[in-house]
Design brief:
With 150 residues, the chain is mainly beta. The protein is built from two helices and seven strands. The strands form two sheets. Strands 1-2-7-6 form a four-stranded antiparallel beta sheet, with no helix packed on it. A three-stranded antiparallel beta sheet has the order 3-4-5, with no helix packed on it. The protein is elongated, with a radius of gyration of 25 Å.
Amino acid sequence: MDSFDFAPLFRSTIGFDRLLRLADAATRFDGSGYPPYNIESTGENAYRLTVAVAGFAQDELDVTVKENELLVTGKSKKDEANTSYLHRGIASRTFERRFQLADHIKVAGASLDNGLLHVDLVREVPEEKKPRKIEIAKGSGPKVIDQKAA
């Protein structure tokens, strides 16, 4: 058995659907490995996704972010019906790669350079989500808010 069915959990939980979708996606294996990619840390709160897209033009690539998911797609527009290859080692097939983004990860930009698509990501935690120090007041113990006779 190489896959799990999370459908029964979807019926009996409320508010955990994103967590269950992540678990479901983690159990699925995309064995194609195309196109290859790297994920690197470029700073304390910065990352770079590099996808090898040799043979694709800028207008044939699409980078989309929706609900903490980064989708990179490539659709080759070249008509190679008349081309006769002796060896074809550069793949130019249509692809779709999905990446789950953690909370507060934003896409800062994308660029295409020498057949590599670079997508820069930054973690931007809102002020209200950052840890804050709470001052401890000096006083004479707990205060009684309301005291009534029984």
